Amino acid sequence: MNDRYDVVIAGAGPAGAQCARDLAARDYDVVVLETESEDEFPRQSNKSTAGTFPSMMASFGIPDDVVMQYTDSVVLESPHEYFVQEQPGAVLEFGDFKRYLVEDGREKGAEYRFDARATAPIMENGEIVGVTYNGDEEVYGEIVIDATGPAAPIAKKLGVSNLERKNHAIGIEYELEGIDIDRPGFADLRDAMMLRLDHDIAPGGYSWIFHTGGDTAKVGLCYIQNERYQQFGDNGRSIDDHLQHWLDTDPRFADAERIEGKQHRGSAHIQMPGKMHTDRFMAIGDTVPTVDPLWGEGINKCMQSGRMAAASADSCLKHGNLEPTAENLEVYETLWHREVAPNMQKRLWMTRLLYLADNERYDKLMQDLNRFDQDTLAQANKGNVAAISKLLHLGDLPLLAQLGTEYLDFGSLNPLR
Asked: In the record, what terms sit under GO molecular function (predicted)?
């Protein structure tokens, strides 16, 4: 095997695999190190609900044959109310999707090494020049990219990762059959992706039902270990117990059964990224982290981060005399904040506001959403202050004051900037 490449990428998730696709398409020599074995890939990392939208499918050339179900609407539920918005989407078979990215990258010229666990950077004169994997094996590159997610073995040793435990979100999902998809008294979930805000089910987070055809769906929940989790969560319950409680108490699941082998677990860090690069190095995807904090969407964001890293690497490598120093790779962070997550600080503020509200406030929110026009809702989702203000009530002032104090304590500028 070759031991020198233009770019070495650790991790074959959506971020790493997309970065490899883009670099290989530009005729760069790129190798991807993946911990899992090829014949089981992605068994351990098959952890995403994989709900996405046509913009992602089109932007990255994703074929229809990795889609489990195309959807027509997005549904938001609270304990006693719901809101339906017409919005085309797609629920992917995440394993098929990841395998497609690998196959397509290989066709474009990327090399993949499975059973290859990246362990540490190889340093020369204070700069990273390669990666050790599987203990004593080495591979060298002009640029190294860490796409391993929260493990971040390279980023952490370079002092680039700043993931914080207090902002850690964890989730679990089952695939079920026998669900009453159009249960009287609930929203019609046929061809829909549904998110439910209900602290009795997912304290400090949300739960979901993503229809996958017929009487089947992906069903799961996620919570952030925040104040609402401390208030409503049960330390005696695991996340599995919280999900089982929902399955036992929601009549839509009265006759439902788990599909064997279809259980997914995942985690994400809901926070602003810190430093994302240094000399000859970039961190992408969930290593950064890269996830929409408000709705938990990560696939599109991770793939965008991979694309921005590929463009940044190209900006250096296409010029033979331009070294990939931290200064020359600064474009990656510029592109990340401009293209990948342009309103990250604002969406983090909105996330705190949403997930710290109580169940009664969630019912009021659904009533408000049903009153307003689609443009107002779209603008609120984008972080427009005037649109958000229309969804606020006098009773929200104590929570707004709490959030304002938090940002002042952290020395932040206006969270609505």
From this structure: FAD binding
What six digits make up the tokens of 30?
Answer: 């790129």
Which amino acid appears at position 145 of this protein? I
Whole-Å CA distances, 150 to 100, 114, 147, 267, 331? 23, 19, 9, 8, 23
Q: Is residue 71 classed as helix, strand or coil in its secondary structure? A: strand
Cβ neighbours of residue 349 under 8 Å, at least 6 residues apart?
Answer: 403, 407, 415, 416
Distance CA 130, CA 4 (A): 9
Query: Considering the domain 66-92+166-269, what is its CATH architecture?
Result: 2-Layer Sandwich (3.30)
Which alpha helices (DSSP H) does 14-93 contain, by range?
Answer: 14-25, 54-59
Give the SS3 label for residue 118.
Answer: strand
Map out the domains of the chain as residue ranges: 4-50+94-162+273-340, 66-92+166-269, 344-409
Q: What is d(CA 141, CA 308) in angstroms, rounded to the nearest whole number?
A: 18
CA atoms within 13 A on the CB side of 234: 12
Fill in the DSSP letter of residue 338: I
Element containing residue 401 per DSSP (H, E): helix 397-409
Closest CA to 250 of 221, 212, 213: 221
228-237 pLDDT tens trace: 666 666 667 8
Question: What pLDDT digit, counting tens, does each position of 160-196 carry?
Answer: 987 776 667 888 999 999 999 999 999 999 999 999 9
Q: For the packed helices 299-317 and 14-25, what is the interaxial angle rounded to 10 degrees?
A: 40
Q: How confident is the model at residue 410 (pLDDT cuts 50, 70, 90)?
A: very low
- pTM of this structure: 0.90
- Cα of first residue to Cα of last residue in the chain, in angstroms, is 50
Q: Determine phi and psi for 99, rounding to 5 degrees.
A: -65, -35
Strands 192-196 and 30-33: unpaired
| Number of other CB atoms surrounding residue 60 within 10 Å | 20
CA distance 122 to 210: 43
Q: Architecture of domain 4-50+94-162+273-340 in CATH? A: 3-Layer(bba) Sandwich (3.50)
